[in-house]
Target: Cytochrome P450
Amino acid sequence: MDTARPPGPRGHWLLGNVAAYEKDRVGFLRRHHRDYGDVFSFDERIVFTVDPRLAHQVLTATNRDYVTEPAPFAGTSAPDDAGEAARPWMGARRALRPALADAAPMVVGMDGRFVALLDDALDRTAGREVEVLPLMLDVAGRAVAELCLGEDAAGVPGLLAAVHAALLPFEDAGYQLPGWIPLPRNRRFFRVHRRTSETLTGLVRARRAGAAGTPPRDLLDVLLAARPAMSDASVTSALWTVLIGGHGVPAAALTSVVRELAIRPDLAAALAAEAGPWDGDGRPGDAAPWGGDERPHEGGLPGVGGAHGRNGPRGVGGAHGQDGPPGPEGIPAGGGCPRARLPLAEAVVREVLRLCPPAWTMTRVACAAVDFGGWRLRPGEEVLSIPYLIHRDPRWWPDPDVFDPSRWPAARPSPGTYLPFGSGPRRCLGAAAAMRQLTLATSRIAQRFHVRAPDAAAAVPAFCGRLAPAGLRAAFHPVEP
Ligand code: HEM
Model:
């Protein structure tokens, strides 16, 4: 094992690489990937990797050798025992997993509701040019609040919006100042955090005191029925994790979908044809493809004349586009799901998540001295895997910068080469629900609206906390039923 640090740019004598990174984050990473290879140091504490094998290794060793990114103000010193640190959340996660699996009743039950929330938001703004990300934050916030809290969700979407706004300054900054400094943004974050915790705690207590839902109506019921029993504090904290996870990231993905629909009218037309005519009845829960028969999709994609036909990604030393089980982080095939009836919409979502993964970097902190591809990391050092660059690496993806939904569903990404939902024990808990909802949303928007966004091509990705087209504005013009 090499004891030296991975190579990397020295940067400014005082500021190191912070200023250069802040000026052009992805340009900085691309440049140093080219100059230093798949692993390079940012400073004494942070290492980047663009190696899918190492990214996969770090993600799968989480809770053992690494912990996940600390929350703002949690400090960066890594606990000695990663498993112990993760235990309360992992217990909640085990309880929630079956309820969030593809085709689980609660997830299926959200299909129609999600489309109704989307319809409502788009109908309210129909024909007017609006900023897309806030609109999608509203839809995602309402959807995840209902999934978590059912009838008690009122008021929570507003809190989520406040949390999102309070977190933005921390996500935009490449570094954090200590929480005890009374900066306005620190005070604001603590205020919103306290208000949200108090509201959630109140809801948890009230529900525990009342009648339990059998079968569980929402994720709060699931958590309260978990065995061994969870404390109110653990239930509140688990709800917080799901609410935050299911808000900003899916909204960023939806915004990227809207951008593609705006700049690709032919694709939008093909999606509308796949969805079938809009009958204007306003009851999306009743009509195909949101309900009814759910056969797995087996054929090719209608309406996409892609550059690659059936090109799969080039595996990491593995099979190239062969049929086989998807890698562990691959999105499950569409059986038992409305995605099965909307293969083009699903392929568009997969491709959007490849080119614009909202979680464009993923951070892990080493808990002990660990071997990292021959380098030695000390406890407390951070590894940042970069899905954005891995997804655009010609070694794993032919014509990687080309938006080509026709690579799916044949693509069989090898471990680490396709990470929109992460990998390993901390892989996205809402991945199945998210895939359903994004697919439905893509199809529904194309079915019901012509999306016009004159600045769409210029709305370049903003590489801050989450990757989303910066400042995208669009008008959704209703299609006549
Ligand atoms: C397009 C939609 C989504 C994407 C791309 C996405 C992506 C991700 C990624 C990459 C992670 C792992 C981050 C890491 O390893 O550092 C994650 C974690 C998580 N996501 Fe999602 N997510 C999406 C939607 C959702 C939804 C709808 C929910 C809730 C219903 C959700 C709940 C969570 C939770 C609870 C975690 C934390 C898992 C853990 O730490 O054990 N996500 N998500």
